[in-house]
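Example (one chain per record):
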Amino acid sequence: MAFVKETVSSRLVLVVQTGVDGDGEPILRNISYSRVSPVAADEDVHAVALAMAELQEHPLAAVRRVDDHKLSDE
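Predicted structure:
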């Protein structure tokens, strides 16, 4: 039996460093943006993330793209 994977939604997550804890480990905060086009290229999503990071108060630690998939029988 074959399955089909369809991306139904995507969101962009900017991970910013808001400080350091008592042990010197970074304190990270996630800023999520939903309604990213599921067909948008990863390179384009990354470029948007970098542009949005310029508007943030805290430095960017990572960029994540989270995709939600639907699995169904073929």
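Caption: The first strand starts at residue 3 and ends at 20.
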